[in-house]
Amino acid sequence: MADLSIEVNGIKFPNPFVLASGPPGTNAKVIKRSFELGWGGIVCKTVSLDHSKVHNTVPRYGKLTEPGNKKKVLGFQNIELISDRPFELWLDELAECKQAYPERVLIASIMEECNKDRWVEIVERTQATGVDALELNLSCPHGLPERNMGAAMGQNPEVVEQVVGWAKGAAKIPVWAKMTPNVTDPALSAMAAVRGGADGLAAINTILCTIGVNLDTLRPMPTVEGYSVPGGYSGRAVLPIAMRHVMEIGRSCEGTPISGMGGVDNAEDAMQLMLLGASTIQVCTAAMLQGYEMISGLCDGLEAFMEKHEFNSVSEIVGKSLPYFSTHADLVERQLAAKREKAGQAHRDDMWKGDIAKETDSLVTD
Predict the structure, then answer these.
(1) Pairing of strands 105-110, 258-261
(2) Among 83, 91, 100, 130, which Cα is nearest to 32's?
(3) CATH number for the domain including 252?
(4) Quick check: 49 and 122 in contact, CB under 8 A?
(5) Are residues 109 and 212 in the same domain?
(6) Do 351 and 250 share a structural domain?
């Protein structure tokens, strides 16, 4: 059997698969359940110092389904906020989980207002529980923007650098900064986090969206007392966007480990993110839809992939495909050098004749 472990920031993950911050890690009971089933690590649901300011709604999820098949989920929206459980309770449960499963990796997701004292306090008190690392949630796309939290921070590179610096100044364990995809250039905030001292980066959080409108009631979804609000888009539909962000961050922040996430539904999805620079893979929505038991398929798929390509360690996979990204101008030059200078012009004037689906397919790569 292949060795599926990988070391990141001095932390040994039994396998690279980590449950992402969200409902899968909402309390000690489910965290322990994930460890029992074999997940390499888990990031707990994001916590803050004052839970009394967090108010969730019901309903808070919406689904984008395949036309004619409502069981086939293409995308998932949530307007769920960070944990509304008391911080003191979380401290007890984090310590309890780490003591019960010392060989598994437990990462605490933390979020606070743009205030140095509050960030220092939450870092110091959380790391005292024995967690292996801290993930700074600088990327939640909805909720609490009036407190300048989440993506309101992560979209500003100057604030990112400052907040990461506050956290690193108090931290005795690795600090990861979780990046928002709701930006034009994903490299800017990522590089700012590295300047602030981040030991690692996590990407991506969910994408701000509106999942749909109910055509019977004419109300946007998810509908709460007749009204709605944009929320975070996740599910397999966001995988191509996640891959682009991980790739861009991987090229701009060389040497800084990335925990990749966004749309991972199976082992093949995970391998693609790893090839683009992710050392560990986080999963949330797929676990919510498939169950924690999906970890067995992820591990089996990773082992098969390693055997097929004769990888001796998981770390050999990380970033293997990054060197093959270039510019459009370079692609043209490469075709010229390959003496196929008219490859993009062949039959261009008589190609599009009306059978557009078939004609489009002829230009798609396998």
Answers:
(1) unpaired
(2) 100
(3) 3.20.20.70
(4) yes
(5) yes
(6) no
Range of the domain at 88: 6-319
What is the tens place of the pLDDT at every residue in 122-142? 999 999 999 999 999 999 998
Contact 108, 134 (CB under 8 A): yes
For residue 189, pLDDT beyond 80: yes
Read off the tokens for 133: 């690392």
Task: Report d(CA 217, CA 274) in Å as an integer.
Answer: 43
Report if residue 366 sits inside a domain: no
For the question of residue 114 being annotated catalytic, the response is: no
Cis amide linkage into residue 222, ω under 30° from 0: yes
Q: Tens of pLDDT along 171-180?
A: 999 999 999 9
Helix or strand run (H / E) with residue 248: helix 239-252
- Say which of 140, 209, 253, 299 is annotated catalytic: 140
In contact, 181 and 245? CB cutoff 8 Å: yes
| 336 and 248 in a common domain | no
- Give the pLDDT score at 350: 63
Residue 299 shares a structural domain with residue 335: no
225-266 residue pLDDT tens:
999 999 999 999 999 999 999 999 999 999 999 999 999 999
**pTM, rounded to two decimals:** 0.94
Nearest residue to 230 via CA among 23, 46, 83, 62: 62
> How many domains does the chain contain in total?
2
